[in-house]
Amino acid sequence: MPENFEKFALRARRRFFISTGFSILALLAAGFFKSIFLSIALFFFVLLLLASGFWEIIKATKSVYREREERLSILASLSDGIIQYSADKKIIFMNPKAEEYFGVKQKDIADLKIVPDLWDDKPIYRALVEIIYPELAPFTLARGGESFSSEKGIEIHTSRPELRLFVLSKEIKNTSGEVTGHVKIMRDISHDALISKIKSEFVSVAAHQLRTPLAALKWTLRLFIDGDMGPLEPKQLEFLNRGFETAERMIKLVNDLLDAARIEEGRFGYEFIEIDYLDFIAKLIKNYELVSKEKKISINLFPVKDLIPTIYADRDRLLLAFSNIIENALRYTNAAGKVDIDISLEKDYVKTVISDTGVGIPKEEQKRVFSKFFRASNAIRLETEGTGLGLFIVRNIIRRHGGEVTFVSKEGKGTAFTILLPIKRELIPMREGRAVEEYSEGI
Ligand code: ADP
Domain PAS spans what residues (predicted)? Predict the structure, then answer.
């Protein structure tokens, strides 16, 4: 309730109370003193009090209306659509943007219950029905594999009219904690999606064009290094080796860019098969035996106590994700450090923790770790190589498998990445979606 309303209402109540008191006094005075003059004076006094009470009520009502108008005009001017509906799914409020999205007026549907059957019975309300029941929409993507009722927001594509909306939901509860309704805030992301599509298509084409000449360059250098073009001086060999490594780095960057662009467009392509998980991890560790020995870092697989079942996954994509995490652990850990791998079962998931004793990630930078092109300040200072695309790719691969990747890190102490992968097929999304940017921060 607006503050002014309370103030005016309190004053009015007080005046009505006092005037009642004086009315009784007037009656008593008239009876006791038998003075008509005193009675008339008291009567006018009571009248005055009553009038001022009513005046306060008018002021209170006006202040409520003014504040209501102000709120409505703020909601009306918002570029996001807002709907509020009751627990029995009746629309209580719709701002003009939401009316524009759905092509309906709030007053026309004030008494209509938005039930799933409307999707068939009244196709003109389809988009509205799909926002309230996201499972009916042709495309729905919940952030991080969360449920459709997640407050973090979900992307919904509606069928009629065709919209791409990012939707935040909030339950409304009364003082006893009962859910009395919902509010949904919707943002049209079709423009963002178009821009992001054009951008990733451009990156895709550019990276593709760069790959062939870079590969040719690399193999030409290899011919010289291998002595196929005649013997070389040690100094010449050193320069050619450096050129070769640079070409390899550029190929890695181009490949990462291509992968990231395909992930963003939702066309990375996955082929799921049954995988013996422990065998997969053992082979992965073997791939890094040499590098870890060179860097004097030990990789230790802890004895696995739980019985780990096979998992349903794309072997190559999963290998790419795990290689990225192990390579990071080796890259950001100094000699004599160690990398531990601990595998266990956690409810419906296989949990793998890969921890290192490396440089860690500064606390204030940790929230950006999974963003594209992010490289922590300490990693840049160390002059380590990297594209900042690895963990973006990792997270999307793991999420495509119905899993999640998280980490804890302490600067100067080390970092531990936890990867959860489902053991039940029904926990794996049916198809690949586009990678979703974190819109919720801006909404
Ligand atoms: P990069 O190619 O730079 O390694 P990633 O996306 O794989 O890109 O990682 C992003 C950044 O996260 C890295 O540049 C580094 O700052 C930080 N990082 C990732 N893994 C680790 C780790 N194990 N220890 C310390 N920092 C890490």
Answer: 67-135
